[in-house]
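Hey, quick one: can you model this chain's 3D structure?
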Amino acid sequence: MMGKVIEVTEEQYAALERTAAQRGQTLEDLLDTLISEAAGERHVYADLDDFFRALGASEAEIAAATEIAHQTDLRPSDDGRADAGRAAEESFDANA
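Sure thing. Here's the predicted structure for all 96 residues.
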């Protein structure tokens, strides 16, 4: 495969490395992602964590969100509302 060389400053390279590390990606994966986004390509995420990584969430933030989701019942109920929202609404109604 033929390729091209792009020169970047040390500061630019370090910024790319930091961004890749924050996203839990290799530098090559980060560049692939950025190029795909710039080209307007549609991206299908492997899972919700992958989506949050693409938004720039750190692994620590993803782990914290996962823990909160496991502690909070946010599954839809029969009427389509999240259980946590219904519980809050019922609590509000009881206090009225």
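One thing worth noting: The two ends are 70 Å apart (CA to CA).
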